[in-house]
Amino acid sequence: MTNNEKEMEKMEEKPDSAQKPPAYERPMEIHHHYYYEPPPPPVKGKSSKPSIAGALLLITAILGIVGGMALLSFGFVFGDMEEGFTFFGQEQNGDITGTVVAKNGTPIAGVNISIVGEPLSTKTDSDGNYILCNVPSGNRKIMVEKEGYITIIYKTFIDPSRHSRDKEEDFSNEYSFTMDTGSGVVEKGSYPPWDLIRSVTIVCGVLIVLFSIIALIGALQAFRRTGWGIAMTGAILGLFTILGTLFALIAIFILVLSKNEFNGSSQYNPPHEPRRG
After folding, report:
1. Considering the entire predicted model, what is its pTM?
2. Buried b (16+ CB within 10 A) or exposed e, 243-268
């Protein structure tokens, strides 16, 4: 056997694994594509705006609590208003004045003006004018009477801050009457609704104190730069604290400008790595 024949025989005896595999059994070549995403814009540093807003809300809360407590105090005082004012145990008085005329407009002289339950009285002059001094404050009944005329009992509240010397200004204790001929008694006028005034005052005082407490919570959130929504809620409710309305309004404006500085929006942003597709 020649050498060429021996080599051909060896090639035929080689295993199939040594031969090159077909194309469909070869491993696929994978190509990777990289996409670059630009980093977000740099975040500005923290400013003092949230702290300023917090200070304004703190002032709003303090003023609101003071005003609310004052309203609550007045509300409880209004319960005794019908009995009159007292100052350090001294009863406060006021003056009343006015004119009495007939139905045709003619002044009536000699009409007796008195306070029911009080030893006070006076009479009208020739022009129908009268003045009665040192009338106890509170809910009172003014009696207007003269023989031949129907007696008038007028319900009113006597303001102790008004005296006859104030007539040139706004003299609220001025009462003029028109009398009809005849006999009998007629009641006119009315007392202020003290129960309603007291209830409304107390409710307003409670609400103002509540709004002030929420404004205080908003101030704490602004100082901590967390909870922008809570801080804004406190500022909005602070508008209703009356005494702190202006400070709350300024705080709202500052909170709008500094919203991005709340809730960790100023935290560090790591650099972006290219994303592999």
Report:
1. 0.59
2. bbeebbebbbebbeebeebbeeeeee
